[in-house]
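ok so I'm stuck.
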Amino acid sequence: MSLFPFLAKRHSVRKFKDQPVPKDDIVKLLEAATLAPSGKNKQNWHFVVITNKDKISHIAQLVAEKNASLAALHTDPEKKKIIQSSAAYHTIFKNAPVLILIYAGPYDSIGDGLREAGVISAEEFHALVRPNPGVQNIAAAMENLQLAAADLGYGGCWMTGPTYAAREISKYLGFEKPGYYLAALTPLGVPADDKLSSPPRKPVADVATFIE
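replied:
not stuck anymore, here's the structure
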């Protein structure tokens, strides 16, 4: 049994009941997301909430079309097949009552300033920005949202795969915020299954190193 039951309630949910999510609950989840920590307190996140089923379905179609166009770029049949096989997973949100897109905004790091000054090499720059704290802020907000959703009896699925259709999605929605880009999304709704489970986790001994 988990020492932290509220964490164990979160599962990746991909099937939902045909049941709307009250706006008040969505607002509560967004408030929970904004309580996440962020580097320099930038809070460089912006949430786009879609509850129109036709729009959600159309976004899924845009992802499917982009998947097909990307797959067509490959001449290797096996590599083409790998991309095509991801289409079903990347569009699992199509029947969700709510879709939440999380956009990431600007975040200037030490590496950015040094590159602009022209005093570091490309290799050094990439090493400095590799941790990508700006995106880590978005990840923290998404985790808060997922945990809060589970606590209220909802489910979601943290997704980044469909972002290859980010430009098409943003254009379709008519959403534009200077310096922001689509970093992740999650469907949201009441889980269709009463019994939820998650894949087994690696033991701490396999993923941690203690240095004394």
